[in-house]
Amino acid sequence: MVTVPAVSIEEGLSLADAAAYVFVDLRDSNEQAKTGLIPGAVASSRGMMEFHLDPESPLHKPAFNQDKTYIFYCASGGYSAFAAKIAMDMGLCPVMNLTDGMNAWIKAGGPVARSEQDKLL
Which residues form the Rhodanese domain (predicted)? Predict the structure, then answer.
């Protein structure tokens, strides 16, 4: 069984501005509105992720067509690990999971985008 590589909060913080990485926020819009997103993150709620990943879907997000490493995150790291595995199974690679998620990111003082202009949709 293939496992999804984990990225610690410390590693994630060091990759936040790296052009080779795209963060994917799997939380719903209410959670995102409360805490913000990692700057530059693609917002793709867990319930919509498969549609956003599928190039044949009318809801496909072109951000998933890039030659990048995708780092998935949720509030605490649990369901993002599962979602990252599904993304791998759908052919997106490479993918990683941000352990401990957005809650730990904020606690560690990570940058947060709070407005539509600050994030990639």
Answer: 17-114
